[in-house]
Design a protein that fits this description.
The structure holds two protein chains of two kinds. By secondary structure, chain A is of the alpha+beta class. Chain A has helices spanning about 40-45, 75, 95-100, 115-120, 135-150, 165-180, 195, 215-220, 225-230, 340-345, and strands at about 5-10, 15-25, 25-30, 55-60, 60-65, 70, 80, 155, 185-190, 200-205, 210-215, 240-250, 255-260, 270-275, 285-290, 295, 305-320, 320-330, 335-340, 355-360, 365-369. Chain A folds into two domains: about 5-230, 3-Layer(aba) Sandwich (Rossmann fold), CATH 3.40.50; about 240-369, OB fold (Dihydrolipoamide Acetyltransferase, E2P) (Beta Barrel). Chain B has helices at about 10-40, 50-60, 65-75, 80-85, 95-120, 125-130, 135-165, 170-175, 185-195, 200-230. In chain B, α3 packs across α5 (about 95-120), α5 (about 95-120) packs across α7 (about 135-165) and α6 packs antiparallel against α7. The longest helix of chain B has about 35 residues, at about 10-40. Chain B is globular. Chain B starts with 8 loop residues before the first helix and ends in a 5-residue tail after the last helix. Classes of the chains: A alpha+beta, B mainly alpha. The interface of A and B includes residues 87, 100, 102 and 131 of A.
Chain lengths: ~375, ~240
């Protein structure tokens, strides 16, 4: 479709940012410690800050090229931005905020007002003043407003950071629907890894103004760059986010068939999770911390641990006293596990080793997909 | 309309003259005042410190000095005075001079208040507006200006009140001509020069106090809305 391609050196004052990347259509996460330059990058792409040097191309258009003295103002870039605090206009109602967005005249595929209203379920909010919106509602309005301007790329600057977990999980499904409808590059900045993984596997890892790794999450997680960051303790523990379908309940425990290789509930692996009641057929995301998973040579006997999954080691990366292991449960279903290097050595883990992954049902966090 | 039957004709005349010239001052100062306030709040440019100083000068100079300066500019021999005379208009010692004197003394208050109001508008909202496809002017007109409106209105009220009470610059530049340029404060001054005149001043002083009181109240209400908007992130 229309990739967002940039190579930027920024900025004139104090902060030093130097990042180049090509972002395809769909959601790409921008991840890194706070103060690493994520927001600066977004503001430079949007045209709020001047880049010292470099270019930004979006589809066939050049938004910035310092060698050709091209520097389009924000209103001409067709780049939508959703800010952490929403930045709704306080003197306008929800409808006024949405109507403020001005799509470019020649964009035939810009969404209509009604389409955005129904996509984000904004109809009941339209006549409300913005002061009477909850945090989650504010962000839905901010997202709708950005979409109504018919953007060719979307920048989300920690849009969920000010929300508590339930509200965050309530808004994630709206974000997940974006790529299918709009087919534009979406950069999602966050320092919450689980939130990011619930949206995408593809990420840019930024530290101290430099792009230090990019690509598939599991590749990045097992990279040198990631463990270097982890040493400083600035990056939270690794996490796994899987998707699946509820297929049954046993007591207070839900049974979920995991998706594998793009097929719903056909991955062949199942997980039990302690969860509030859900009906069969519900689609869910499952979040499991990488340190919550234990490994054994094979199935173990009587135990309180409800999930015992046969798996094979796909990759192993050692750094300091830690081992990061990538396990394959079934085609298209992988798990990242963090254990001490000592434990990994005692199990004799190598690529291809057969192991059993042990996961307590209470360590699996469910959220609606 | 309140009956003004308790006032003498010369008092009514002075009151009407003061009110109309003060309204003219407020209306005349509004566009340039808002423009200068916005420049000072949001732009950096060469000579900004100079403009800032010039704006504040009338606040600290003795009003008589301001009046003298205006006379030097707009009088028969002044450069602007000669220009207006060539079109057949005299400015000094006419009601127009009252307006110019009031504007010179009042516009600093308008600018100060409006500048604070513009500074309190979150620049992030202006960025958001631009990223939504709106150009700089449309962003200013539909976002910055409405959000700064309470502070601007407070400034207009202060400017109006200042013009209404203006004495020193007015008497120097517009004179104290009965039935021509004798405003409310000038009439009060004139009466005080007359033996027994102070006995007739009660209603005039009451009216002056009432107008000032209402103006300050309106201005304070406006300023309070600006402060509230700032602390609540603009919620209302």
């Amino acid at each position: 479709m229309n990739p967002l391609h940039f190579d930027l050196t920024c900025c004139v004052d104090r902060f030093d940012l130097q990042v180049a990347a090509e972002i395809p259509a769909g959601i790409t996460g921008v991840f890194g410690p706070s103060g690493s330059g994520k927001t600066t990058l977004l503001h430079t792409l949007a045209g709020f800050r001047r880049a010292e040097q470099g270019f930004v191309r979006l589809g066939g258009r050049t938004l910035l090229d310092t060698t050709r003295s091209i520097d389009l103002p924000p209103e001409a870039r067709e780049v939508g931005v959703v800010f952490q605090d929403g930045r709704l206009f306080p003197h306008l109602s929800v409808r006024g905020n949405l109507r403020f967005a001005r799509p470019p005249r020649d964009r035939a595929n810009a969404p209509t007002f009604d389409e955005v209203i129904s996509l984000l379920e904004l109809a009941p909010l339209l006549s409300r003043p913005t002061a009477r919106l909850s945090g989650g509602e504010r962000q839905r309005v901010a997202l709708g407003r950005a979409l109504l301007a018919g953007p060719q790329a979307l920048l989300l600057d920690e849009p969920l950071a000010s929300l508590d977990r339930p509200r965050r999980e309530a808004i994630l499904p709206y974000l997940r629907r974006l790529p299918a409808r709009f087919g534009i590059p979406v950069l999602h900045v966050t320092h919450d890894l689980a939130e990011l993984l619930a949206l995408t596997d593809r990420l840019l890892l930024i530290s101290q103004g430099r792009l230090i790794a990019s690509g598939d999450y599991r590749t990045v997680a097992l990279s040198e760059a990631w463990s270097r960051l982890g040493v400083g303790g600035e990056v939270p523990g690794l996490s796994n986010v899987l998707t699946g379908t509820v297929v049954g309940r046993e007591g207070g425990v839900a049974r979920i068939a995991l998706d594998g290789d793009g097929h719903r509930g056909e991955g062949g692996a199942e997980l039990l999770a302690v969860a509030p009641p859900r009906s069969s057929g519900d689609r869910v995301t499952l979040t499991i911390g990488a340190e919550e998973i234990a490994l054994a040579e094979g199935p173990i006997g009587r135990t309180s641990i409800r999930n015992q999954l046969a798996a094979a080691v796909d990759r192993r990366h050692d750094e300091g006293g830690r081992s990061t292991i990538e396990l394959r449960l079934a085609p298209g279903i992988a798990l990242i596990v963090e254990i001490t290097k000592d434990s990994a050595d005692r199990l004799g883990l190598r690529v291809g080793s057969k192991v059993t992954a042990l996961i307590k049902a209470s360590a699996v966090h469910l959220a609606p997909l | 309309m309140i009956s003004l039957g308790f006032l003498r004709p010369i008092e009514i005349e002075a009151l009407v003259l003061s009110a109309t010239t003060a309204v003219a001052v407020a209306a005349l100062c509004l566009p340039p005042g808002v423009a200068i306030a916005w420049l000072l709040a949001r732009r950096s440019f060469r000579g900004k410190a100079l403009l800032d100083t010039l704006v504040h000068l009338p606040l600290v100079l003795p009003p008589v000095v301001v009046g003298y300066g205006l006379l030097a500019l707009f009088g028969r021999e002044g450069p602007l005075g000669r220009l207006s005379a060539s079109f057949g208009y005299d400015i000094a010692f006419t009601p127009a001079a009252i307006v110019i004197a009031g504007a010179t003394m009042g516009i600093p208050l308008l600018i100060r208040s409006a500048r604070l109001a513009f500074e309190s508008v979150d620049p992030g909202l202006e960025e958001a507006a631009r990223s939504l496809g709106q150009g700089p002017f449309s962003t200013w007109w539909r976002i910055s200006l409405p959000l700064a409106r309470p502070g601007i209105l407070a400034g207009v009220v202060l400017c109006f009140a200042r013009a209404l009470g203006e004495f020193g610059a007015t008497i120097t530049f517009a004179g104290n001509i009965a039935g021509e340029t004798r405003t409310l404060p000038l009439l009060i001054h004139t009466e005080l020069q007359t033996p027994g005149g102070e006995l007739r001043l009660g209603p005039l002083i009451a009216i002056s106090v009432a107008i000032s009181f209402v103006a300050l109240l309106l201005s304070e209400l406006g300023a309070r809305r600006v402060r509230r908007a700032r602390t609540e992130g603009g919620a209302r």
